[in-house]
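Submission sheet (multi-component)
Chains listed below:
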Amino acid sequence: MGKQVIVVGGGAAGMMAAGQASACGAEVILIEKMKRLGSKIAISGKGRCNLTNAGDIADFTRYYPGNGKFLYASLKEFDNQALMEFFQKYGVKTKIERGGRVFPEADDSEVIVKALKEFLEKTGVKLILEQAVERIITDEERVTGLQLKQSKEVLPAGAVIVATGGASFPGTGSTGDGYAMAEELGHKVIRPLPALVPLRTLEQWPKELQGLTLKNVSASIWIEGKKKAEEFGEMLFTHFGISGPIILTLSRIASHALSLQQKVEIRINLKPALTFEQLDLRIQRDFAKYQNKQLKNALDDLLPKSMIPVMVHLSQIDPEKIINQVSKEERKRLCRLLQELQLHITATLGMGVAIVTSGGIDVKQINPATMESRLIKGLFLAGEVIDIDGVTGGYNLQAAFSTGFKAGKAAAHYVHTTV
Ligand SMILES: Cc1cc2nc3c(=O)[nH]c(=O)nc-3n(C[C@H](O)[C@H](O)[C@H](O)COP(=O)(O)OP(=O)(O)OC[C@H]3O[C@@H](n4cnc5c(N)ncnc54)[C@H](O)[C@@H]3O)c2cc1C
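Outcome: structure written.
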């Protein structure tokens, strides 16, 4: 019994770890506190599961603003191709979409959960559902077992893999339990913060534009007046502020700065392909064409219809002003506004809706070659519970699968050779 591996958490990392440990010859129990396995996988990619990215694996670490380098060894051992082949073995065909995003051909994340369940069944993993693990038991320096929360029952274990996920989207079961387990054993937990999360604005006007998507715009993030990053692509206005791909990418920086009470601004450039002078010339051409119209009726070629009243209001030019009476200074003001639409960020939308958690168990205390804790022998960590986070595009699930694979293999080896 003491030789068994217990995996805590039946998400992407935990299921991969459990199946892998079992495939490597260990006796494995997987404990999941929810009724079902893989709740987060099920809702991932809007129910379609963007399981990985088809890009060159050598470039992958760049897509993890949170500790990409730590993932080098696990991504190398179990890369995107290996992951796709793994699912193919379980009958899941995949397809590649925009930006290298890989989805199941069936457009249904449940086929991914089903494949992982089959993997667990085939490798003989014992499942315990609807039981939360409370704490891990050690004899000071090595794992000896764990305790269940409700029954207080103690299960002996030669190795434990903690794969409890982050603290975001807690409705799926990931409520940050692994942080407390690791902290109790002396690990440092880097403050968990929401990332890939929509942003609230001080300004109320985004509400008037809710539902409007802007394509081919750029957004830059400014912390305490200094530009930190810029993204080009698609964004969305909402009743609370802003969202959409480029905003989600920038949100990690916003989240960290807000946690330090720093001033956060997003500046949107609606015409990023043009220089200020080119845009001014373009507006002059439009103004020549519509010279006898009122300003509010002269911007149709330049802006989505619903944006016109908002932009005219922000430009502080009288909307009824006839175009040929708009001064050069007013025109330039409008021009500047189009390229630097400023929004003050007051908060993120929080952990409840964040796609990923930035922060978690400090990577310095984990051996990246095995995922074993450097403090406690026989304790392995995998997935989002670790202080790693990627951008959108399939990188977060790949990280969970790769670290899970490595932890499973290393835990099996550990119980065979050490316990
Ligand atoms: C809405 C949404 C969409 C997403 N879409 C994508 C996408 O398309 N592509 C992508 O790459 N990433 C996506 N992500 C991120 C990705 O899903 C996660 O990074 C990934 O699932 C993390 O896997 P994990 O196994 O580490 O943790 P989780 O999937 O969170 O699994 C942790 C498991 O542990 C269980 N658990 C927690 N505490 C205990 C305990 N005490 N005892 C027992 N069990 C416990 C939980 O119930 C849960 O099942 C998305 C996330 C969200 C929220």
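Remark: Residues 198-349 form a domain with the Helicase, Ruva Protein; domain 3 fold (CATH 1.10.8.100).
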